[in-house]
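Propose amino acids for all 295 sites.
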């Protein structure tokens, strides 16, 4: 560790001590909205924001259930059945994945087709909330006050539009944040694995398809031929659904406010966050826009 350890390091030490695990030599993998640490012995610690115990508990239970269905999914550490609370932060432990890279768009289609075909489990999994944390993200953003006010207005508009969405496919188990970064493809050629189940819940399957569709229509990072293959594998083209525009705009708002929130503590992201706001406000031309990834 450096002389200035990350704010979650103390929680990591406390959680590991409580769980009887060794935090010696822990290495940060990703320190963003959630903090991910690698422990010795093939374990991963995931530290979420304070007050998220119920969500973390549900995520563990869903992961265990999904692993029994045959879906390739990240697996919780079997030694604990519930999160460890440290500094008011829920800490969960997971089996480390094999060496891997981000999955491909077609991996996302294959996994979503399997996931959406599953029956609902016999325990409550909550309802999808596409607007969770958005208001807090706007408030935390280092953006000009008029932009924050406008984003709050857009949030209000989209909440109303979401309530009026046309009928789509039947509700099912959805991942909630289904993009290539949440799919791990083992370097040894094994099956792609679905990871990060924080938003997994019951909801409209179209929401899971939007994340790939906007790579075609919003960010231009997926070629039309690749998107056509995605639709062929999954079996549906969400672009043809009348509710697409509302879901697209909601996902764009989530992506923009995620960048804006984290730009507050990462000045190198501020230009990208402002660019995304400018795009939404019509200051940067027509879609597709070129958005840089936020780590």
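Proposal:
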């Amino acid at each position: 560790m450096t002389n200035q350890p990350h704010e979650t390091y103390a929680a990591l030490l406390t959680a590991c001590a409580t769980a009887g695990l060794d935090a010696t030599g822990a290495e940060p993998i990703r320190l963003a909205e959630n903090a991910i640490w690698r422990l010795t012995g093939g374990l991963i610690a995931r530290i979420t924001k304070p007050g998220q115990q119920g969500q973390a508990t549900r995520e563990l239970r869903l992961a265990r259930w999904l692993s029994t269905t045959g879906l390739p999914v990240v697996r919780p550490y079997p030694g604990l059945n519930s999160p460890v609370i440290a500094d008011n932060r829920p800490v969960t432990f997971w089996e480390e994945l094999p060496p891997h890279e981000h999955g491909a768009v077609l991996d996302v289609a294959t996994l979503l087709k399997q996931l959406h075909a599953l029956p609902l489990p016999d325990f409550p999994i909550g309802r999808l909330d596409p607007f969770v944390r958005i208001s807090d993200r706007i408030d935390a953003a280092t953006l000009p006050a008029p932009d924050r006010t406008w984003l709050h207005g857009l949030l209000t508009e989209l909440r109303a539009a979401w309530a009026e969405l046309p009928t789509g496919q039947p509700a099912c188990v959805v991942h909630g944040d289904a993009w290539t970064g949440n799919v791990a493809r083992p370097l040894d050629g094994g099956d792609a694995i679905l990871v990060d189940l924080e938003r997994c819940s019951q909801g409209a399957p179209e929401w899971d398809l939007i994340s790939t569709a906007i790579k075609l229509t919003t960010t231009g990072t997926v070629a039309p031929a690749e998107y056509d293959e995605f639709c062929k594998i999954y079996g549906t083209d969400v672009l043809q659904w009348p509710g697409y525009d509302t879901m697209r705009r909601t996902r764009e708002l989530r992506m923009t406010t995620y960048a804006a929130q984290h730009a507050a503590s990462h000045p190198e992201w501020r230009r990208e966050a402002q660019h995304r706001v400018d795009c939404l406000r019509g200051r940067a031309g027509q879609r597709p826009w070129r958005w840089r990834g936020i780590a």
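The chain has nine helices and ten strands. The two ends are 20 Å apart (CA to CA).
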